[in-house]
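Practice set, problem 2.
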Amino acid sequence: MELLRSNLSRVRIPEPTNRIYKEECCISFDTPGLSNVLSCRLAPEFRAAAISVFVWQLCSFDMLELYLVLSRCVVEGFVKTSVNGKKSEGGLFVDMNSFLAFGKDFVHWNYEKTGNPVYLHIKENQKLVSEDRPSKKPTLLAIGVEGGFDNNDPVYEQSYEIVILPDYVTLPFPWVELPEKVRLAVDAIIMSVGVEKKEQVAAWTADTKIISKHAMELKQLDNGVIVPPSGWKCEKCDKTDNLWLNLTDGSILCGRRNWDGSGGNDHAVNHYNMTKYPLAVKLGTITADLEAADSDCTSKLLLLELHSSDVYSYDEDASVIDPLLAQHLQHFGIDFSSLQKTEMTTAERELDQNTNFDWNRIQESGQEVEPLFGPGYTGLVNLGNSCYLAATMQVVFSTRGFCSRYYLDQGLKMAFDTAPADPTVDLNTQLTKLAHGLLSGKYSIPATKKDDGDASQTTLTAKQEGIPPRMFKSVIAAKHPEFSTMRQQDALEFFLHLIDQVERNNSGNPNFDPARSFKFGIEERLQCSSGKVAYNKRYDYILSLNIPLHKATNKKELEDFQKLKAEKSARGEELSSDEIVRPRVPLMDCLDCFSAPEELHDFYSSALNAKTTAVKTAGLTSFPDYLVLHMRKFVLEAGWVPKKLDVYIDVPDTIDIRNMRSKGLQPGEELLPDCAAEDGGLNANEDIVGQLVSMGFQYLHCQKAAISTSNAGVEEAMNWLLNHMNDPDIDEPIGKAQKSVPYIDPSKVDTLISFGFEEEVARKALQASGGDIEKATEWIFNPPSGITNMDTTPSSSGAEVDAALPDGQGRYRLIGLVSHIGTSTHCGHYVAHIYKDGRWVIFNDDKVGVSKNPPIDMGYLYFFERIDG
C-alpha cells in the first residue's frame, strides 16, 4: 500500500474529454479476454521434412520466405499442436495516467518509456449463456455495438486489480483500503465507454440522415440547364472529381478543400454563400444499389436509393435526405426514374442472377474450403462494411516492401519507442501493429468454444477469430470524409489513399518508403499535324485499363446467347445462371488499349498557333516492383443509368509488357515550341480574347487570361478569369507584368524536388499556382490540355528521368487480386485471393482458406510482381 501511496502523483482521475482505451492493446491485438495457450512440439516424423524446407529456403537466399515457412510449420504439419486448456496471464493493463491499454508482453515497454508505474489490470472470463437467449431490439444500424444488432457474441464478466510496475505488485479491486483517488480513477475507467467502441458508434451514428427542411419546397430555376451523364467539370476550375450539382440552378462545382489540401476548391460552398441555394447532390453517388432492397416494392427501392445518394444541405450543414430527389434531378434531364423501371425487366432479373453467381463464385460458396492458420494467414474482422480495407491490406502486406518495412525491419518495440505520446494516432505504429498481427501468426489459431455443460472444457473450431483493424482504420481514415464512415467504399480509392499516406509518412526517408515499390512514370507523346511532338510526364501507382468488349474471344458463343435470350424472352421464360454467357477479353488487349494511339481534337499547337488534331500515345518510363492493374468495369450510360460491365478478363499467370516502355525523344523528332520559355514573351490569341470579350469581360483581362493559360482555349482562359478577377494586379498593363519575374520561394521548389519532380517543372508549377504547393502538385499531375513538354527536356529519356524509381525488364507474375461483388463500388462485398506457398488462398474478411477455384477472371484490381532485374 505504501508503494501505491508513493506513486499517487502518477494517477489521474479521467475527465469527460479524456480518451480511455480498455478494449484492445494499443500496439498489439491483445484484449482483456483470457485465451487458450497453443502448445507446440516438433513431431519426430516431420523433422527431416522441416530440415529440407530450411535448407531449400536457405539456398534460395530468400530470407522472408525462409522466416515465414519456418513459422508456418504448425500449419503444414511439421509441428504437432494441442490445446492444453491452461489460461494465459492475459488481460489488459490500463495506464492510470495516460489511459492507454497494453497487453502483458508490452506493458513494461510503456513503463520504461513513460515511467508511469500504476495500472488497472482488466481480465475477462466468458460466461455461459443460453443459446436461445432472446435478442434485444436494435436501436442503431450497427453490429457488435451497444444498441446495434445482436450477433450473439460471447458474454464476458470482468475482474480487476491494481498492478504496480516494475515488480508487478498487485492489489485487489474493489478494496476499501485503497486511496480515494485510486478508487475514483478506477471507477471512472470502468464506467466509461472505451474509445474503441465510442468511435465505432460515432461512425455509425454519423451516417444517420434527416429529411432536409428545404426538400419539399425547393425552388428550381427554369434556366434550360441539361446535365450530361459524363464529362463533368467544375464550372470555376479544372476539378473533375468531388463535384456537386446544385439542385436549384444546375451549377456543377467542386466540393470543400480538405485539411491536407486535397478535395475541392470550395467553389460549391462559395456558390451557396453568394446565392443561398441550399441543396446539392454529389455527382457519382446516384447509383443503383439493387442489392440493398429486400422487397419487391419499387417505392422502397427508390427510397433506399434516395438515402444512399449524397445530398448536402449547406444551410443545415449536414448530409440530408431529399425525398423528391428524382423529381429534382429530372428538372435537369437526369432520368432517375429509370432505375425504378429496370427492377422488374428481364435485363434486371438477368443482372440479379449474375450477381448471385458472382457472390458464389468469388466467395467460393458451397465448396469445402480447407481453413489455414499461422503466419501470413490471419483474417481481418469486418468492422461493418470494411471488407474493402481488409481485402486491400491482405494483398498489400503480401508484398515485400510493406512486409519488410513494417514487420521484418521494424519490430513493435522500435515503432513504440519512436511513436508520439499517443501511439494510437501514429500511422507508423498502427501499420507495424497490423503487420505483426497479420504476419506473425500469433492470432491465427483456431477459435475455441465452450463445451456444453462444462465451462472448463473447450474445443477447437475450424474458424479463426481474426483481428479487428479498429485503430488502423481510425488513423488511416482520420479526417477523410468517406473512409471515416461505416459505409462501403471503393477498394481502388482506398489503395491510393493508403499509398499517399504511407508516402507522406516516409517522406523524411524515401529509401525506406514501401509505396515506392508501386510507383512508376507514365509518358504521353503528343504529335500535332505540324509533325512536331511534345512529351508530358506524370507519376502513378495504378494502371487503369479500359475493357475493349469488341476484343472478346467468344463472339460465337455470345451471338448464340443473344439468340437464346431473345427466344426465351419472347416465350416469357427466364434464363438460368448456367445459360448466361459473358464476353471474355484477354488482359493483353486491355493493356494494348492503354498504349494505342488516340486522337485529340481541338488541341492547341504552339507550332501552328491554332487548334488542330493531335495523336496521343502513352508508355511507361519505368516498371515498378509491383504493378497494380485497375479494370474499369463501371460505366455510365445515357440517362445517368450506371452499369457494371458483365465481362470476364482472361489473365495469364505471367505477362511481358516490355513493348509498353516509353522511348522518349527520338532522333529526328522536333519538339513543339515551349511558349512560356520564349524570350520575346507570349502574345494572346485574338480568337480567344474576342470570344471572352463578347461575353462581357474586359479586353485587358481577357488578354491576361489567354497568356496565363498559354492560349490553351476559351474554357481554360475563362476559368482563369473567374479565379483571378480579384487579383490586385489584374488591371496592371501586360508589359509591366511581363517584365516582373514572379518570386518563387526556394524552399517550396526544394519541397517539390523532394517529391521527385525536376526543378524546372517545380518552378513552372509554382508560378502557375501562385506559390501554393498543393495546387502546384495538382497542376503537375493534371496540367491544362494546352500545356506541353512540361516535365521532360528534349535530351531526357524516360529511363534517365526515373533513375530513382524501381525498374526492370517488364516481366511480371500474378500474385493477388481483389474481386468485387455488387452493382457499384460503394456497395456489395470485396474479397482477396493471394498466391502463397504454391497455392491460391482466399481472404474473405476473417475467413482464410485454400482456394479451390480462384475467380481470376473476375478481378477488379490485379497485383503483379516483377520477376526480373
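Problem 2, part (b): a different protein.
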Amino acid sequence: MAEAHQAVAFQFTVTPDGIDLQLSREVLKHIYLSGVTSWKKRAIRFKNGVLTGVYPASPSSWLIVVIAIMSTMYARIDPSMGMIDRIKTSLPVSEFMTVQTQTVLSAILFATGLWLSFIFLLRYILKALLSYHGWIFESHGKMSFSTKVWLSLVKLLSGRRPLLYSFQASLPHLPVPSIDDTINRYLESVRPLLDDEQYKQMESVANDFKKDPAPKLQKHLKLKSWWATNYVSDWWEEYIYLRGRDPIMVNSNFYTMDLLYVIPTHRQASRAANIVHAMLQYRRKLERGELTPLRALGIVPMCSFQYERMFNTTRIPGIETGNDIFPIFSALYTTYSFMYFNEGVNRASLEAIETAAFFLTLDDETHGYDPENIRSLDLYAKSLLHGKCYDRWFDKSFTLIVYKNGKIGVNTEHSWADSPIIGHMWEYVLATDCFHLGYTAEGHCKGDINKSLAPPTRLQWDIPKACQVIIEGSYMIAKGIADDVDFHGCLFNEFGKSLIKKCRTSPDAFIQLALQLAHYRDKGEFCLTYESSMTRMFREGRTETVRSCTCESTAFVKAMEDERTTVRQRLALFKKAADKHQNMYRLAMTGAGIDRHLFCLYIVSKVMDIDSPFLKQVLSEPWRLSTSQTPQQQLNLIDIQKFPKYVGAGGGFGPVADDGYGVSYIIVGEDLITFHISSKFSSPETVGQFQTFFFVKT
C-alpha cells in the first residue's frame, strides 16, 4: 500500500560496499515534533500536578515563607524556637558544606516544613468547613448569618483559580448513617406500600435486624469508612456494575441526545470531524487538569474523580460471577477467548479499540426530533440506546454516534461514571462545535486540511467458524433485548420551571409528584420509586436513592382522585408532599440516605457469611418506577435566553424492572420539560400504556 511506504521513516539497501541507509527527513521531522509535543504535555501535567498537590497554597507561597524565615534570621530572630539549630547540627560539615551553607540550608528545610504544615492545616480547616451542610437545608432565598460566614470562609480558603482536582484532598469522607436512622427512614418509606399486617411483619423483621446482626455489620462498615476514601463507591462499582451478569446494553448503559431543535450541518463527515475535534480539546484540558471544578453556589466544590476514566477506557468482560452466568455474557467471554488469546491479529485489533480515546459510529440512519413525526424521539432514543446491536461498542467508556443527517448522540457505559459527568463533556462539545468551530455556508468544517495526518487504518480480524456461531447467537439474544424496549419521548411545554418556581415549589419535587399521580392513574396503586441523587460533595461520591413514594405524596395523590377534596386541601397536601420530597433529597445529598447504607451492610453480611432476612428483603424489592433528572447548564457555555433553540434534549435509560418504567427528564430553560420514558413490550403491565401513563392533567 502507498500509505505504508509513506509511513516508513527510513529505507536501506545492501550493496557491495555495505548497507546504504536512507533516512526520510520529512518523517524524522514529524517524529521530532511528536517528541516535543509529548514532552510539553509532560511538563504541563507536572506543573499542574504540583499546583494541585500544594493546593490551597501555591508554589510561590513557598518562596515567600523561605524569604520570611531568612529575613528573621538576618534580624537575629529565631522563629523556629531552636529547630533550625537542631537541623543544622544534623547536617554534615565538609568543604562543600560550610557553616554558612549549613545555616541557609537548615533555614530552607525548616521553612519548607513550616510551609507543608501550613498546607495540611488549610486542608484540614477546609475539609471541616465542607463537612457543614446546614446551608442546604435553609429555605430558598434565605440565608442565615452563620451560613454567610461559612461561605465567606470557604471562599477565602478555596483560592483564586483552582484546577479540576485541586479540592480532592479537602473533600470530606462520606459519613456512615446510624442504624437507627436508616431503619426508621426505611420503615417510613415502605409504609405507604404495605397494609397494616405487612407493615407489622416488616417492622418486626427490621427490629430483629437492629438488635442482631446490625451492630456487628455497622462496626465493620465504620472501620471501612475510616480506612477507605469512600465506604460505598468501590463496592457499588464492583457489585452493581462490574459483577452484574445482565447485558449492559439497555440494562445499564444510558444515552444522551443532541441539541433538540438545531443541526449545525447536515454533512455527516463534517459534523463528526468537528465533534471529534471538540472532544479531543476537552480531553487535553482534562488530562492537564485545567477544567474548572464544578461548585454548588459557585463556591462548594464537587468531587471530580469520575472524570479520570472518561477517555481511553474500556470495560473488559470476565468470568468472575455468581452462579447465574447470563448467556450473552458467557458467549461474549467465549468470543473474547477465541479472538483475543488465539489470534495475534485479533489481539492487535482489540487492543486498538480498547485503548482508543472513544468509539465512533458513522450511522447510516437518519434520526432527530421532527415535530411532524410523533415517534421521532422514540426512534432516536432506541437507536442511541442499542442501535442495531452490532454497531456500538457498549463496553467502551462511551460511543459517539453520528447519523447520516448530521445529528449526533452518545451511548455511555455506566460503571465508570454517572450522567452529570458525561453531560459536562457533552455541554462543552456542543458549545464548542456550534459557537467556536462552526461550519462554512456549505456545511463543511472551517480551516485548511492537514495533509500530514496519517490515513485511517482498517482493523484486521481472523474469526474462526466456531466463534462466528457464538457471535451470531449473542447477536440474536441482543436483538431480542433491543426489540423488547419501548420508548416514548415527550416535550412538555405548557409550562416549566418559571411557573413552578413562582409557586414557591422545587421543580424536581413538582415533577416527582406529577409522576406519582400519573403512575397511580395508570396502575391504580403505588410502587417503590427510585430517584437518583448525587453525593459528590464527598470524596469519590457517586449517587444515593431518593424514595419518592412517601406517605405525604400518596396522601396528595389520593386527594387529587377524590372529588370531595377542595382545591385548598389539595394545595396544602401538595406543599407538604413537596417539602417532604425536598428534605429527603437534601438528606440523600448530605450522606443521610437509606439505600447505599443498606447495600453496604448487605455486602458486609455476605462477606461475613451472615444470613439476614431483613437485608435480603430490602435488596430484592423491585423499583417499578425508576427516575432520574438529567442536569444541564453545568458550564453555562450556551446562553439559552439569547439562543433559545440551542437547548439539549436530555437523555435516558432502559427500564430497571421488567414490569416497570424508566423515566428520565430534563428541565430545559424556563418553559420546557423533556421526558424520556421506557418500558418493555413483553410486560402486559406496561405495553401500550404511555398515553395513559404520562398524558394526564395534574
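Answer key, part (b): The longest strand covers residues 672-680. The chain has a mean pLDDT of 88.
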